[in-house]
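Standup notes
- DV: blocked on the single-chain target, sequence here:
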Amino acid sequence: MKALAFNEFGGPEKLRLQDVPDPKAAPGEVVVRVRACALNHLDIFVREGIPALKTPLPFWTGCDIAGDVAKVGPDVTGLRVGDRVCVNPNLTCDRCEFCIQGEDSLCVRYGIVGEHLPGGLAELFAVSAENVLPLPAHVSYEHAASFILTNMTAWRMVVTQARVRPGEDVLILGVGGGVSSTAVQIAKLCGARVLVTSSSDAKLERARQLGADVSINYSKEDWESAVYEKTAKRGVDVVLENVGAQTWKQSLRSLRKGGRLVTCGATTGPIAETDIRIVFWKQIHIIGSTMANRREFNDVMRLFFAGRLKAIVDEIVPLKDGAAAQRRLAEGRQFGKIVLTV
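- DV (later): unblocked, structure below
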């Protein structure tokens, strides 16, 4: 089969559409013929090299996969060749205390498809049948692929970790990104008033179309001051943070007393300065969040299939143009997801 692989770490120029071995369906697994796979910043981080991972080469990424069942392994029931499916990208042991409690993303051996194992930027992909969800006929492969990882992440952040309630103010930073853009519609579904930031007026307009109530262009005004003005100097109830070092201090200061900051990433760097006095004096809750458990995955996908949440697609390009697509993602020029078709 063909895969968009890299044989050494580095920039997007290292990517090559090359021949790699076909996967086999082990007991309990199916092989999916990939029709679409969306990009995430994780694709960039893995391609550039994460020393702790000891990634084998050649390697190909891709977390968000939709396609058709091509082969069914032994001991698999309820799935047939030709079934349309999408894939839960969680890799878990199913035996540790957290898995037993249903908290998949806390698994002691937790991994993600396309990071810890080769992913969906290829023609074929083998996965446990338990990770496969039937894809309704009315949902396109491209829309399904664009929806999975960012909405799993945003759903857990907004609903489970932040516990957003009707009438609360939720601040979402960098609204052009996949998690941030879809978090807008999830927070609105929870009944919140949503404030968003971006340096692009075009992205802010897209966010308003998704339901954002207040938009702040941080290239034209101090966004922390604007947040205080828009909340009558109270601060917001919740900040959804995935920017990292560049915004961390302002995010903490933007919260009301007793507010919650939920973080799922650190795009601008993992080491940030924290004024501990702000944390204890304002009694702030700082909450980490990674991906989602199986129940959360099924909940958010059900809302998507029912049309209550929408896929946010920036562009759709063929797999062979994946290097240029990853370059565009790295430059932050997209709004929503870039999807590669296979």
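- Follow-up: DSSP finds ten helices and 17 strands in the chain.
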